[in-house]
Amino acid sequence: MKSSLILFQIGALRILKEVSLNCAIRQFMADLGAIQIFLKLLRDDNNELQCLAAETIAHVAQFKRARRIVRINGGITSLVSIRHTGRDFSYSTILSVWFIRQQD
């Protein structure tokens, strides 16, 4: 049984993943330090949280400053070391790493 906190985090990340498709919101998330929070969630024991965090990072990391924040905070290592539980999960991780590794 998932705890209330996990369910809340999953719900919030589902929303953030979708709104992070907007360029202005991506920049706002980076300004507020959300990327660092998403990176911490990559280390959580819950696979669904890890997957949603990786997908959200992929969306946010579409601009140079956000990719730099991810790299500086060890995000590539965190993305590569998370557990893979299925095709969708692997895809979200690969997508995140691809965006972050783009040449700036």
Describe this structure in words.
The protein is mainly α and 104 residues long. It has one domain (4-100): Leucine-rich Repeat Variant. The protein contains seven helices and no strands. The protein has helices at 4-19, 23-32, 34-41, 47-60, 64-72, 75-81, 87-100. The chain is globular. The mean pLDDT is 84.
Features:
104 residues; mainly alpha; Leucine-rich Repeat Variant
Number of strands: 0
Approximately how much helix is present in the residues? over 70%
**CA radius of gyration:** 13 Å
Determine the structural class based on helices, strands and strand pairing.
mainly alpha
Terminal CA distance reads: 43 Å
- In CATH, the architecture is Alpha Horseshoe
- The overall average pLDDT, rounded, is 84
Shape: globular
* CATH hierarchy class name: Mainly Alpha
Oligomer: single chain
CATH topology: Leucine-rich Repeat Variant
Domain count = 1
